[in-house]
């Protein structure tokens, strides 16, 4: 159930590539957090894409530079072990590079920040929710 915020400078993605990227990040997030590959499972992965004018993206104190991209990932505490975090960071960086047009083999300036939040800090529809309930929903669970 990762919740993600993707920060990127204007022009980093075409709309078509942004949509493809969102699909790929969703798939990676589901796999890494061991969520069900169902409509319900997918409906619990949200991505907010925030584009910034290039004159508002600073690298080393100056505007311009490279396509620096940050992904903030909010996940359940304990939902990602060390191997899953590594897989998520590598997968996100590879996907972002592919869809931002970074040349193959070039370093892709992606910063991935994973925030693990205690289960007591998650809620939806006015009620607390647990990772276990999300991983094992009822068969008839409606998508969010």
TrEMBL record:
Residues 71-130 form the 4-oxalocrotonate tautomerase-like domain. The keyword Isomerase applies. InterPro entries: 4-OT-like_dom, Tautomerase/MIF_sf. One of its GO terms (molecular function) is isomerase activity. Keywords: Isomerase. It comes from the Bacteria. It holds the Pfam family Tautomerase. The keyword Isomerase applies. This is 4-oxalocrotonate tautomerase-like domain-containing protein.
